[in-house]
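We emphasize that the prediction below concerns an isolated chain of 397 residues; any contacts that depend on oligomerization or on bound cofactors are therefore not represented. The input was used exactly as deposited, without trimming of termini.
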Amino acid sequence: MKNKILRYQAFVYFLTLTLWKQKVKHTAAVLISILIIFLLSAVLFVSSSLKQTLQHTVKQQGDFTVTRLKAGYATQTPSSWVEQIEQIEGVTDLTTRVYGRYFYQPKGKSFLVVGIDFFDEQNSQLLEALIGKMVLKSFLSQESMVVGQGVSEFLTAHFYEDSFSFKTPSGAFKEVHIAKQLDESTNLIANDMVIMPISLAREIFGFNENEVSDITFNVPNEAEWDTIITKLHLLFYDVRVLDKREIQKGYENMFNYKGGVFLILYLVTLLTFMLILYQRYVMVYSSERKEIGTLRAVGWSIKEILLYKFYENVIIVVVSFTVGVLLAYGYVFLANAPFLKAIFLGNANLSYTVGFTPVLELGLLGTLFLLYAIPFLVAVLIPAWKIAVTPPKEAMQ
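Result of the prediction step, given as a token string:
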């Protein structure tokens, strides 16, 4: 028993001594490994954070959105469609919206103006998620709007601190009071958004009293969704029906499937990883060949040599992975991923600051660790085993 403890202590001492002695040789592998893990983890964190934010956004929206089409293009939708849709069994929570892009010509910028019924239950839930509790009596006492942070900063920079004058299609100006700014946490979806009463939005875009942009509603039973779509197409010949599933897919395609970027990151990562594996492969066959032969000559078994090489490289793998993940976490969730943010979100209409919600998908991190660790260890253990099984005298030549 005492001999086993002494052998174990000698094994740990030799392992620690070797790592310290060869720290320069291991530094290159560690740094490149950290870079690989950092890139892959940063992409993973950004993707997961955006996915969670978008899922929360889609959850707040209606199950279906109905828009009228004319010559294949969306046009004003008659408000009278609401009464007809209400007759369909299974439909609940109908609401109407008026929205569109308002272009501020002098600076070439635009706002997404959204007009809603503030007393509608469905809209109230969405508003509460965006702006929290607000005193409606004070808000509706004058023609007011709630603006995103990007809109607020843009208007303030152009001396519109308390109100902004919209130019209507008739050529008149409509002054609207700025009641509140949306929280910075909503910047991903509402940075350039302006929320106002639906009647005010109608006036700004020149809609008639019986016209809206679209109609949204819920269908609690998802098994009926396809049937509802069929009924709507039978009811209206010029309708476009968009369900929540399509909206979610559209968001995912926009933010998560940047094919060219992912391909470039993958190729760079793969090339770097191959260089690491090659470096480890060559190292075992050169400088460490005599070391393994010497260990065999002094009585080390093949199992002990493989365990020694295994633990040596497991330490390198764990340290590299941990440091890489921590750096990626700080880069994304503390520094807001300056470079990756532009890749995922594209060019901004208005300047904004996006805060990524911290999300850790342990399953994906575990998969990433295995995809990195297994090839790394295999590239070292197989050459080490080939040397260990050769006669010591031959290995030391």
